[in-house]
Design goal:
This protein is mainly alpha-helical. It contains 46 helices and seven strands. The chain has a five-stranded parallel β-sheet with strand order 2-3-4-1-5, sandwiched between helices. A two-stranded antiparallel sheet has the order 6-7.
Length: about 900
Amino acid sequence: MSIAASNPGPLVGRDAEIELLTSLLDGIQDGGGAFVLYGEPGIGKSRLLAAAAAGARERGFTVLSAAGVQSEAHLAFAGLHQLVRPLRFRAADLPAAQRAALDAAFGLGQEPAPERFQIAMAVLDLLGEVATDAPLLVLAEDAQWLDRPTTEVLAFVARRLQSDPIVLLAVVREGYPSPLVDAGLPQRRLGGLGPAEAMALLDMSARQLSPVIRDRLLTEAAGNPLALIELPIAAARQEPITLGSLPLTQRLEQAFAARVSDLPEATQLLLLVAAHSDDGRLSDIVDAAGLVAGSTLGLDLFEPAAEAGIVDLDLHSVRFRHPLIRSAVRQSASVLQRRRVHEALAEVLRAEPDRRVWHSAALISGTHEQIANELEEAAGRARRRGAVAVALTAWQRAAELSPPAQRAPRLLAAAELAFELGQRDLVMPLLREVEQLDPDPVQRARTTWIEEAVQTRPLGDAPRATSLIAAAEQAGQAGDRDLQLNLAWLVASRAWLVDPAPTARRVLIEAADRLGDPESADPRILAIQAYADPFGNARAILRRLRAAAADVHPDTDAARYLGPAAVAVGAFDIAATFLGEAVEGLRTQGRLGHLPRVLTLQGHMAAQVTDWGVAIPAAEEARRLATELREPQWVAAADTVDSIIAGIRGDQDAAERAAARAERIAVPTGANITVAFAQFGRIFAALGAGRGSDAYEAAERLLDPASPAHHPIIACWLIGDLAEAALHTGRINEARARVKQVEAESGDIPGTCIAVGLLHARALLAEDPGEAAGRFDEALGTDLTSWPLQRGRLLLAYGQWLRRQRRIAESRAPLRDARDAFDAMGCAAWGDQARRELRASGESSRRRDLAPRDQLTAQELQIAQLAAQGLSNRDIAQRLYLSHRTIGTHLYRIFPKLGITSRGELSSALPARAARPER
């Protein structure tokens, strides 16, 4: 049954939207979803929402709703409180951590500030619990005026409803920003009614119009349903509405204001207070209106407004029938009247500081330090509740009302939060204001740190590096060691992004050395020194990393720095340990903003050692989160992981497509590190397919200063690959020169990828059979347990060399071992090479069968592995920030792909390495 069945009049001309919303509700057993409607005021968004709510109730849905009010936009989670207030008793069913996150969001507990994603996950699970009783419809009306923390939560939830019996509908006024509009959800713009529908609605609203007036109203209304209802009323009252000379929204506001002006003065005052109140509580509104009037006013004075269709009343609250009525009432008052209303509301709300302070700060200018202090306190409370956007607004307003001496630190606090929220267009104007206030050294360093974080620029030459390092060291000399290390880490990260000029790197190395011993407790120092001079500091850094790895569960933040430090010096096995710990810690803490970067690093390390059970899901999760967080640089980084995986596994087309996707994002932004990693997949694919020339050219790009892939540090990681490509393209002398260059620059430090690559290169490029035999013995005698791909390729190269030396019988054993290793790793192209070599030696072997695991998508593989470890659907959902029903849906698809029927069979269906238990 269509949702329009009980709403025929108000939904004229909305057949397509009615059908769409009806299908969402009727298809709930197949999964939920979300939809955003947007359009100009009065276009019919709210009526469609009301029709959807009525239709949902007829179908047995539970309906929850929240409506945005412009004056509530600065109250943390005000909209979310509206939405879940009827469900608070169900919060007892949630895990303790989620209950605590919700309590913190609503200011009820004393727990540390939750991450916003923890709050969002708690709401998703709460809604999921309610939906076990009956399907759920969640409505967000006038979402452009819901507080930003609420809309961020709703956007998070909306993207995760595919498997839950939950529908989320949001309506947004056109031209207003909202996270719901930017969330990638299905959307539809509501335009004006067609001529026939407009005439039908006008005739329903006003039957006795002259043809001239009727035509004029149709023209002025332009298909807007609210205008087709309200403008005839204004025309009948012969109100002096200036038709045609103002935008339609203002004409409607004029019409509403004229109707309000006919009401008693006391009623108009009550409406003016209600229009400025951030809560519809009648008691607050009546008390504040009494303060303005200087006498006691009664609730009965609202009755004329209700009878005139201006407001809806219940026992405790008042609500305007349409947002344009509220704005009309506000606009009809003078600034002095409105300021007096705010003062009265501030007086009434003394017991509620978060509401009171915004009324105190309204419509004032100049210096008001007491109010600025109250706003600063409100910002702190909002931050503790996880409402970063509200805290940002409070800091900004506090800065506006501050004396010059207090303005800079408040502007900097606002700029930091704007950066955290991704509002980069807001950050730079705030920093420019700080620069005009004669900031002290610490404030100047903080300004530099924020600006550098916002503007991802290469380190460049020595003067720029010197300037940045000087700012960091000035902060340290002024006592802010934390800021010094954060800024130094940012500078070091820039040197990893794009290789700087040699003079700039020397400045960075000297500054990193001044920070102290890498054996110190602060892992940032180790990471800075690793990024500054990965070759010169490698031995000391590896000692510290190995010592730290003995700690079974390092601190999440420590792991977040130790992992990249291990990557920088090429200790992939150690990096994998720390990055795994960092990923799990960040997930547990809800710090999803850091995850895309750490996941891509984890994916790179895992791919290089063919740990597909980690690499494939890491790339997928990094891409999903980076897309959701609108961070294209990490989407590109995830693509490079995909390219490496495809290249190693022999899928040349997939490797090229992923590399090209990464380059489309990274090349215009100057992210050399990403472009360099994009070459890895191409190199592996080309080597597997026997295209040595293509592999050599791709590797050389990393050594070419004119190439966007230029990155001489990680180019050293490829020395074994370059040597293999050179061997098959007649460039042996060139490759030998590269080997000497790498040996001189990086040394030969055991346990690093460069050391393994050099073993491979020396064996392939040996000048005579005697040397080659010794080099192969040396390489294959090294413990390569942590480097299975490199060991397999060495075995293949050794078998090929033996066959070329006419030692046919001897060649078969290493070739068989190589074939079996490649089959176990799923490296099809190299496995085929080993088979061809075996055939040439007179031995045949059957083709590798496709493993059942290879049929799983990246997310399915990740879920299957976690389930194999014994985690429940809810546990997995908490880790991956998905709904537990989504996990169940995936497992339902996974079982037949693996040829199993129960959870208990997962461990045996997955390779031991993929299903391994966590540390």
